[in-house]
Amino acid sequence: MTRRPITARGAERLRAELKKLKSEDRPTVIKAIAEARGHGDLSENAEYHAAREQQGFIEGRIGEIEGRLSMAEIIDVAKLPQNGKVFFGATVEIEDCDSGKRFTYQVVGEDEADIRLNLIAITSPIARALVGKVQGDEVDVDAPGGRRSYEIVGVRYE
């Protein structure tokens, strides 16, 4: 069984979602199913079928989160040696060598990656190029849009 790295913050977000699903969403959908059953014939009851579908989604998501957490190796980034190198959990500011645009990303596990939140998976092309590098290094990334060059402007551990 392979452990999957996740930051302490990412694990906490998953636990919070799991708690909400179990304590709020699940009871709400169970109540909706009970109400829909009270309306009679279930074969043509759209409310019943919609509530059952929602219940299936909730139960599936609960199982998915519990599975992720059971496989998780929670890493507290603040307790890791802060030697200036990019590694799992580091927050990295990079600058595109061509356009001069700056980006800030945190290198995280696959289970918590979300580009909208600037969280990139350790297995992503850009994270693989950054790992082990230090501020001032230049890296080349083979991205879907072609090869890009970035300079590491800063490395933080939060």
Task: Write up this protein.
With 158 residues, the chain is α/β, with parallel strands linked by helices. The chain folds into two domains: 72 residues, Helix Hairpins (Orthogonal Bundle), CATH 1.10.287.180; 81 residues, Transcription elongation factor, GreA/GreB, C-terminal domain (Chitinase A, domain 3, Roll), CATH 3.10.50. Helix content is 39%, strand content 27%. The strands form two sheets. A five-stranded mixed beta sheet has the order 5-4-3-7-6. Strand 6 and strand 7 form a beta hairpin. Helix 1 packs antiparallel against helix 2. The relative contact order is 0.16.
Task: Using the 3D structure, state the CATH architecture of the largest domain.
Answer: Roll
Indicate the radius of gyration in whole angstroms: 22 Å
Question: What general outline do the C-alpha atoms trace?
Answer: elongated
What is the count of DSSP helices, taking H or I runs of 4+ residues? 3
Order of helices and strands: EHHEEEEHEE
Fraction in beta strands: 25-35%
Seen as an oligomer or otherwise, the chain set is single chain
Helix/strand-derived category reads alpha/beta
Number of domains: 2
Helix amount: 25-40%
CATH superfamily of the largest domain, called what?
Transcription elongation factor, GreA/GreB, C-terminal domain
Tell me about the largest β-sheet.
Answer: 5 strands, mixed
